[in-house]
Write a structure and sequence with these properties.
single chain, alpha/beta, 8 strands, globular, binds zinc ion
């Protein structure tokens, strides 16, 4: 079984004591590749994921400004991002989007940073990784106004069938994380059941949102096997089927097949 964790934060300080061991456990569990999200603590440091990708051939990176950090971005931030987007191990721009739950940055500033990065991704010909929380309608509105040129991932998808259909219609892949295994997440499982086999991914969002039976603990890429297993149950296929479909989808979307690794 060969899985790809399409969204993890291995740069997080929660991994400071055992990062290498965490990566080894992932590989031993069948999680052969990982895409580390490069948002870190926000600008001016935009290279947290690139630094990790430089150390391991099977780790890839994204670059981007998280909606939480939108207020920290300057015009220079976006100039640097455009340059970093050309790095051979940067597969996507993200996570970008809107977060109206925490409102760490003013909403209009979030929307501007989001639109700027959608444009930047289109120029760089890279897909995007979307973070959206309590901002579904505005997220879709910004995407519709700006355009989605190179495809994208709705990370940690938590909507139901209606939201899934809207995202699929816009050309997105839906990435399912630990929430898929939570007892109350029937709507997410319904969405997962109706998503076409060529349009879903799996992720951990480690160190956050560990799947059952690890719920409440620090999450790590190795735990993604539990999410893949649950997704297989929901779709009535084997875990191997999920692994091969998600690996194929990831490589098609992010262009990692035969890439620099
Ligand atoms: Zn997120
Ligand atoms: Zn994340």
């Amino acid at each position: 079984m060969k899985l790809v964790d399409s969204h993890c934060h291995l740069d997080d300080e929660q991994f400071a004591g055992d990062r290498d061991a965490t990566i080894e456990r992932a590989r031993a569990a069948g999680v052969e590749r990982m895409m580390v999200i490069g948002t870190g603590g926000g600008p001016p440091d935009l290279e947290v994921a690139i630094r990790l990708a430089a150390q391991y051939p099977f780790i890839y990176a994204t670059v981007g400004v998280h909606p939480h950090d939108a207020a920290k971005a300057t015009p220079e931030t976006f100039v640097s991002l455009a340059e970093l987007a050309r790095h051979p191990k940067v597969l996507a721009i993200g996570e970008i989007g809107l977060d109206y739950h925490y409102d760490f940055s003013p909403r209009d500033v979030q929307r501007t940073a989001f639109a700027t990065q959608l444009d930047l991704a289109a120029r760089a010909r890279k897909p995007i990784v979307i973070h959206t929380r309590e901002a579904w309608e505005d997220t879709l509105a910004v995407i519709r106004e700006t355009g989605l040129a190179n495809g994208g991932i709705m990370h940690c998808f938590t909507g139901g069938p209606k939201e899934a259909e809207q995202a699929l219609e816009l050309g997105f892949h839906l990435s399912f994380g630990g929430i898929l295994t939570f007892p109350k997440a029937d709507n997410v499982r319904q969405a997962a059941a109706l998503t076409p086999a060529d349009r879903f991914l799996v992720e951990t969002d480690a160190p956050y949102l560990a799947p059952v039976p690890h719920r409440g603990k620090r999450n790590e890429p190795a735990f993604m096997v539990e999410t893949a297993r649950r997704l297989a149950e929901v779709r009535g296929v084997t875990t191997d089927d999920i692994a091969s479909a998600t690996t194929r989808n990831f490589d098609r979307l992010c262009g990692a097949a035969g890439g620099p690794c």
